[in-house]
Amino acid sequence: MAGAVYVDGNVAALNDAQKAWDQGESYSSNHSAEWNVFVDPVAANNVFQSNLPLTLVPLDVCNQVILDASYSQQITATDPVATLVRQVLETKSGTHAEGYPVPIFDPLATVLMAGGIEATKVDEQFLSVNTNITPQDNHCGQIQLQGSGSRTITCVLGVSQFAFSKHFAEVINS
């Protein structure tokens, strides 16, 4: 899971979520990068420019799979992993805490790459990463579409929230 191709990134939103997380204007002004790419844009760009086969699961698709507190009721197993998943969902989306539905990032990428569900939309693009950090109006870590390149990267842009929710609960409960 990395990047934001056609949607806004999450660096500024994460930076501004709590006062203690404020890292300054180079973070708070970055509305284009996703956190995982932002923290090491040079490494991300090196991977993008390599010959490694690459399927990107960006925020574009992760933002389509949102779980709220009620989803925790589908987690019925009592082992430590299931208990942790249930607690995270309840803490992050329940009324006693942040109270926001939870977009699913790494679990979605894992389920897709393991073949648990199939993408409903993919796109092949030439991509690079902006590696220039600026103190204001920062775009460092932004995924950039290129007209050409040495190879395309597969970008997952659509999934079924229903299929993910069903499969994820089955895996956690098994």
Describe the structure.
- This is Inosine-uridine preferring nucleoside hydrolase.
- It comes from Pseudomonas caricapapayae.
- One of its GO terms (molecular function) is purine nucleosidase activity.
- Keywords: Glycosidase, Hydrolase.
- With 174 residues, this protein is of the alpha+beta class.
- The chain has a domain of 97 residues.
- Helix content is 36%, strand content 14%.
- The protein contains 8 helices and 6 strands.
- Strands 1-6-4-5 form a 4-stranded mixed β-sheet.
- It starts with 10 loop residues before the first helix and ends with a helix.
- The mean pLDDT is 91.
First-to-last CA distance: 24 Å
Shape: globular
Number of DSSP helical runs: 8
User: What structural class do helix, strand and pairing data support?
Assistant: alpha+beta
Tell me what portion of residues adopts beta-strand conformation. Answer: 5-15%
* Adjacency order of strands in the biggest sheet: 1-6-4-5
Mean pLDDT score: 91
Question: Poorly predicted ranges (pLDDT <50, ≥5 residues)?
Answer: none
| Biggest sheet architecture | 4 strands, mixed
The H/E string reads HHHHEHEHEHEEEH
Radius of gyration: 17 Å
Helix proportion of residues, in percent? 25-40%
| Number of extended strands | 6
GO biological process, one term: purine nucleoside catabolic process
Domain Inosine/uridine-preferring nucleoside hydrolase: 1-131
GO cellular component, one term: cytosol
Organism: Pseudomonas caricapapayae
